[in-house]
Amino acid sequence: MQPIPAAAAVTLGALAGYVDAVAFSQLFGVFPANQSGNAIVLGISLGDPTTAAWRPAVAIVGFAVGIAGAVALQRAFAGRRPTLVLVLAEAVLLAAVALLVGDLGAVDQLLDGIRGALLLLAASFAMGVQTEVIRAHAGVSLSTTYQTGVLVQIAERSTPGGHAADRPRAAGALVLLGGVLVGYVGGAALGAALGRTAGWALAVPAVVLAALATTERWWGATGSPPPT
Questions:
Q1: DSSP letter at 110?
Q2: What are the distances in angstroms from CA 82 to CA 20, 117, 133, 222?
């Protein structure tokens, strides 16, 4: 397991947790990245007319369209560092959301109306793009934006007689998967804390992505398989 791509995957997991925490608690009441949670919120809202179904619906649509857009970009830039293109596209989207939201301290209720829907759509689109940045490393399928699949793999690989007969490789896979999960939880904790205390908190993901973009040369080729 190469450490630089692994560190990039953990960083992206932390970034997704951070964005989900800030967006859920401060801006939208739903998750730009965690669509399993949004599917439940959508079902609840359909059964309870006092809750807004548009929020989880917009997030789900934005995420799916973001994945489709990322796949199209990968094909368009095949052979020309498509991973870097995806990271930069996500950084631009999240920077735009941060600029349009402005000071989080001035946001005293969940964003609503056309403005709220467009900002949620953009944030969810960005998280869909991130899903395609790193899909595998060292033979391990990865998702940096949702953690259900990570948990499934951890449980399967931890079970005697499970996926991997090669125990050293299995141990490396567990370290990688556990790192992504811990990164997501840690990022969410940081996002929840900064979202309440720092008006500039939403700008952090764009800065992190810019830093990742400068190092993509060392992790992009091995961190993401070519598009199929």
A1: -
A2: 25, 29, 9, 12
Residues 6+ apart with CB under 8 A from 46: 53
Q: What is the pLDDT of residues 178-218, one digit of tens each?
A: 999 999 999 999 999 999 999 999 999 999 999 999 999 99
Q: DSSP assignment, residue 108?
A: -
DSSP percent split of the chain into helix, strand, coil, nearest 5: 75, 0, 25
Is residue 13's pLDDT more than 70?
yes
Whether 28 and 59 have beta carbons less than 8 Å apart is answered as: yes
| Separation between Cα atoms, residue 124 and residue 90, nearest integer Å | 10
Tokens describing residue 74: 């990968």
Q: Is residue 110 within 8 Å of residue 27, measured between CB atoms?
A: yes
- Residue 42, amino acid: L
Residue whose pair of structure tokens reads 């992790």 in the numeric block: 219
Average pLDDT over residues 144-152: 92
* Per-residue confidence band for 79, with pLDDT thresholds at 50, 70 and 90: confident
CB within 8 Å of 155: residues ≥ 6 apart: none
CB 133 within 8 A of CB 212: no
Element (H, E) at 141: strand 140-141
Query: In Å, how far are 65, 143, 182, 217 from 137, measured between CA atoms?
Result: 24, 10, 17, 15
Q: Which one-letter amino acid corresponds to residue 75? A: R
Radius of gyration of the chain (CA): 17
Looking at the structure, give the CATH architecture of the domain made up of residues 3-213.
Up-down Bundle (1.20)
- Domain ranges within the chain, ordered by starting residue: 3-213
Percent of the chain with pLDDT over 90: 77
